[in-house]
Amino acid sequence: MTVEASIDPLSYAASLLDAVGADREQVPAHIALDCMQAAELLELAGGHAEPVPLVDEDPRASIRAAMGALGLLDQETFATPYVLDAARAARRALRQLR
């Protein structure tokens, strides 16, 4: 079973962020931790991370895709503390990933 952004944005974003966090070749530990934290927060919000590949094998593209998926959420879901905190952690990881 695979997750799709249009069907389950929380799970899709959590899956991508978890994949970035697991990429020990391209992602430094402190950035991986931000991504894993974001994935965990999205799971607390109701998402379910599943193994997925990185978007184009690119951690930055994967974080951007995860953030795009969060943009598909309805206002009420996006405004929950878990989702907002996850979005902040993902944004912080994207800024640090050069």
UniProtKB/TrEMBL annotation:
Domain of life: Bacteria
Protein's name according to its UniProt entry: Uncharacterized protein
Organism field: Blastococcus saxobsidens (strain DD2)
